[in-house]
Every structure is written in C-alpha cells, then in structure tokens.
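Q: I have 151 residues here and want to know how they pack in 3D. Can you give me a structure?
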Amino acid sequence: MVISLDDLSDPQVIALLEGHVAQMREVSPPESVHALDVEALRAPAISFWAARDGDEVVGCVALKRLDDDHVELKSMRTLPARLRQGIAGQLLRHAVNEAREAGYKRISLETGSEDFFEPARSLYARYGFVQADPFADYTNDPNSAYFSLQL
C-alpha cells in the first residue's frame, strides 16, 4: 500500500469521500455530521492523502491546520470492502507522522459517540489519543467524542 498526497481528482477518491459523507449522514443527526465534502477538502489549510493498493484507492486521511501548533484529523476512511485489514492504522500512523514532521504539537479529532463509531474510538485510543474537550469550532454535543494526542 502506498499513501501519497492527492489532489482529489481521482474518481475513486471522490467516490470514497462521497460514500463517507453519505454514511455519516445515515448514522448521525444532521447537526452532528462534521464530515467534509470534496470541495471543502480542497481548502488551502487541508492536506489530503489517498492510500492505494495497486490501482485501487483503499483509504484516505486529511489534516486540517488549526494554528501553528494544532492540527485536526479529518476524513479518515477505509474502503468498506477493505475493513479490518490494518489500513486505518497505517493511515493514522501516516497522519500522525506528517503532523509531527510539520512541527505541530497536537493533533485532535472529532468522531461519533454512537456504537457505530466504537471501532474508530478504539483505534484512536490504541494509538495514544485521549478523550478531550471540544476544540476549534466544536461545542459539547452528545453525539460527538473528541480526542487529542500530544506530539
């Protein structure tokens, strides 16, 4: 698997992201969906990587710059047919390493608090993320869980 910066033009990447946003809208109330669409991910403050296994896009992850010291993990997604194959862990390690190399001191994320998101919360905990208060523009939301990792 190769993880590389991506310009969000590959139809496979777009389909993966559209599936991500659609699924988040299915499992969370509208006011609690914080998934970014393709256009939002093209913002200058966001770096986006796609993971490819040969010609197949199998996952993605993004980092959104919040300030000089703080970055947010966004749009981490594994192709549904490739779940439970270690792709998410590789994407998470990649994002953490990129944030560290860029000089950030903290990486934070928002995910759902519903049972559907338990595998994601467990993954973040395995990689050293700890529960945190809302950050940036987030507010207390019973449907959200916040995590942070000091780098």
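Q: Anything worth noting?
A: Residues 134 and 140 are 6 Å apart (CA to CA). Helices lie at 11-27, 38-41, 87-101, 118-126.
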